[in-house]
Amino acid sequence: SDHMENIYGYLMKYTNLVTGWQYRFFVLNNDAGLLEYFVNEQSRHLKPRGTLQLAGAVISPSDEDSHTFTVNAASGEQYKLRATDAKERQHWVSRLQICTQHHTEAIGKNNPPLKSRSFSLASQGSANSPGVQRRPSQNAVSFFNVGHHRLPTGKRVPIMQPDHLVDVREMMSQAEGQQRDLIRSIECLPVSGHLTSLDQDLLMLKATSMATMNCLNDCFHILQLQHASQQKGSLPAGTTISWLEPKISLANHFKNGAAQNFPAEINKPASVREEQSISEPCQLTREPEEINPDEELEDICDDKEDDLGAVEEQRSVILHLLSQLKLGMDLTRVVLPTFILEKRSLLEMYADFMSHPDLFIAITNGTTPEERMIRFVEYYLTSFHEGRKGAIAKKPYNPIIGETFHCSWRMPKSDVATDAGSNFSAHSPSEQVTPSKDLESQTELDYYTVKFVAEQVSHHPPVSGFYAECVERKMCVNAHIWTKSKFLGMSIGVTMVGEGLLSLVEHGEEYTFSLPCAYARSILTVPWVELGGKVNINCAKTGYSASINFHTKPFYGGKLHRVTGEVKQNATNTVVCRVQGEWNSVLEFTYSNGETKYVDLTKLSVTRKRVRPLEKQGPFESRRLWQHVTESLRDGDIDKATEHKRALEERQRNEERLRAETETPWCTKYFLKEGDGWVYHKPLWKTVSAVQTQQTDTN
Asked: Which GO terms describe its biological process (predicted)?
């Protein structure tokens, strides 16, 4: 081909977190199908510093910018490269892709299928590897005396009978038990000494044994599909069976209940069997449910996440997980260990951002557009502190598709600011804001009610929708958020993709806003959370906007959790308010009239949300859905919590496959797709407009 010429030149190569980017001289050897690099052009005649085989590689332009791209070799090695501009990147990417395709196709044409061969873990290391030098006569397999079970040879059975499936399930249950014993034996080893739980060979053994069991589960699921199709008739034309995720529950594929007779099912707790047997959500009522706030009780749950023990004890698990991740890898489909979980769903975490309903309601009481924008910024910046439970960076449960969360807040009208000042008026950082009054003694006319509903509207990508309203004040907020997580080396970054809309119906104003990124830092020691990025708040009608920067801590020096921002009148470009401080500590607001206010978030009163008791919640409401996981985490039983969590995830995967096989679309309950976003089915701005129109027609 005319395009198969050798090319060379300088590119920047990402080395590691410490060294960063470095210029290196790269050579594309089309004849050999190699990408080689050298320290500089003068050292080209020497041995290359690195070489990648391009056959079977994947060349991917990055979405970070227009200069970066990656070369992912079939061996698993990756080069992250950066050209000087977009044109040069396109030149390298197109030539690399042509060379890769040529050599990949050549392998397929010229090489017969590989014969099966035995695999020995010890033979993979060289004679100079630390493992071989340390114990030349002993490898990890012989150390744990792993047994191998062979199925008896015989004629192939053309149709798999149900009793054969039972036999296979029993054998796999035995193998899974042995694999768990193997993992437990490795993890019980000390972290230092002659043979440790962090030994590279043992980490490899853990990973390969897990991958083997996952593969066997995939194969078993295909047998189940074949059996189900023979029971019902042949599969529809065009149906394909693809490789699936591990650990498939049988309950959805056997109508006669045969799955319940499997030994693996008998040994499971009743709560796990219940989690796996809840029917497909679309078969439940998908009609929106009106929640009566009078059924909700003040929340007495107070799960603080201050325990460091589990994180320190499970460091080997974290190291094993990190060994399988790559820089920039999307973590959406990565199953994270249970011990890092918070005792609440992500949907409930969004509700906890509303823990200052007095500040939320006070927004619409502002007498001018300027004051209303400033009040919204004040509320926005005070919402993040309560959204975090404790100082440790733990992760809330990933919501199951169709999962919902409902709650409400009651706020005494006397505690909501109505004048030109804010209800946290000027005070020093040491002063404490007056706590809310006891609500039980308030009559119905003495308080406002803020209602909240959230729903997981999509699984891949993971998108949540949430909506809150105060009908008495004719205000509501609607938002949809797609959480995109990436592995960043010693940190995990989560981007909140989406948009929120605050509607003040009384004033005819709409405020659009976004959310900052979140980072879990120091994941090998004491993980902690910081926010980062720039967010914007805009009101098109009034012409006011706010720009807020969440600053991440510099490598050297600097403060943690710093935030700065300003509110502008766009027409005149006049700054009417500036803010600085820490989003989890003290905020300082400076206004155009010279007045300064301080807000100590650690002393700001928090209104407890009101939630229905578990017995009154539906099966897909967050607390009832995750109750067994939460109870196990409270008891410190990580293994039991993992088992319950896995049962929920299995059920979700089974239901997703069933919908794909039957081409049944998912039906949301409370939110409707509008363009690229999700909107509550009955937002206040629509219902109020409908009532006003009806009254006008009547008059």
From this structure: lipid transport
Q: In terms of Cα–Cα distance, which of 211, 218, 241, 249 is closest to 650? A: 249
pLDDT at 258: 33
CA distance 285 to 477: 26
The domains located in the chain, with CATH, are 7-108 (2.30.29.30), 297-373+383-416+446-529+613-687 (no CATH)
CA angle 647, 653, 657 (to 5 degrees): 145
Residue-wise DSSP of 563-612: EEEEEEETTTTEEEEEEEEETTSEEEEEETTS-EEEEEGGGS--PPPEE-
Alpha helices, DSSP H, located in 149-259: 162-187, 200-232
Give alpha helix (H) positions in 282-368. 309-313, 315-322, 346-352, 357-362
Q: Which of 3, 7, 22 is nearest to 82 (CA)?
A: 22
β-pair type (341-345, 395-397): parallel
Instruction: Work out the mean pLDDT of the chain and round it to a whole number.
Output: 75
The rounded distance, in Å, linking the Cα atoms of 240 and 105 is 25
- Take residue 400 and report the two structure tokens written for it: 């199951």
CA dihedral (62, 64, 68, 74) positive or negative: negative
**Structural contact between residues 461 and 482, judged by C-beta atoms closer than 8 angstroms:** yes
Q: At a CB cut-off of 8 Å and minimum separation 6, what does 401 contact?
A: 281, 456, 457, 458, 459, 652, 655, 656, 666
Nearest by Cα to 605 from 441, 434, 437: 434
Nearest partner of 229 among 685, 682, 661, 519, judged by Cα: 661
3-state helix, strand and coil shares in percent for the chain, rounded to the nearest 5 = 35, 25, 40
**Could you report the per-residue pLDDT of 493-549, keeping only the tens digit for each?**
888 888 999 999 999 999 999 999 888 777 666 677 888 889 999 999 999 999 999
- Least confidently predicted of 184-188, 236-240, 304-308: 236-240
d(CA 668, CA 455) in angstroms, rounded, equals: 8
Q: Is 130 exposed, middle or buried (CB count within 10 Å of its CB: 0-12, 13-18, 19+)?
A: exposed
Those residues whose C-beta lies under 8 Å from the C-beta of residue 154, and which sit 6 or more positions away, are none
Q: What is the pTM of this model?
A: 0.57
3-state secondary structure of 545: strand
**Range in 20-29, 45-54, 130-139, 597-606 the model is least confident about:** 130-139
* Cβ pair 33, 101 in contact under 8 A: no
What values do phi and psi take at 231, rounded to 5?
A: -70, -40
Q: 168 and 227 in contact (C-beta within 8 Å)?
A: no
Residue 602 has pLDDT above 60, yes or no: yes
Taking the C-alpha atoms of residue 35 and residue 52, their distance in angstroms, rounded to an integer, is 5
| Residue 533 main-chain phi, psi, to 5 deg | 115, 170
